[in-house]
Amino acid sequence: QKSSELVVGGDECNINEHRSLVAIFNSTGFLCGGTLINQEWVVTAAHCDSDNLQMQFGVHSKKILNEDEQTRDPKEKFICPNRKKDDEKDKDIMLI
């Protein structure tokens, strides 16, 4: 199945077309997507918090390695302190 068939009205993008996209993994595999908002921070959903996070930059496909991919371990994570953990949609934001 082509990736463009997975999203209604979507098209596969060119390699490195969206350089701010980040793939976030834990020890079991792909967990979430994120966005690089400056040279130091990635924003993602707080419900993506997990032990052993790794971030991959430059990923175009989870199946095909891109020579520009870089993997980084987070130094810090910040989650909204008033977030209600039992409500996945409440203040669901995390900075890594």
UniProtKB/TrEMBL annotation:
Cell location: Secreted
Gene Ontology CC annotations of this record: extracellular region; secretory granule
Domain Peptidase S1 stretches: 7-96
Region (Disordered): 69-96
Signal peptide coordinates: none
GO MF terms, alphabetically ordered: serine-type endopeptidase activity
Cross-referenced SUPFAM superfamilies: Trypsin-like serine proteases (SSF50494)
Family stated for the protein in its record: Belongs to the peptidase S1 family. Snake venom subfamily.
Protein name, entry field: Serine protease
Native source species: Ovophis okinavensis (Ryukyu Island pit viper)
Lineage of origin: Eukaryota, Metazoa, Chordata, Craniata, Vertebrata
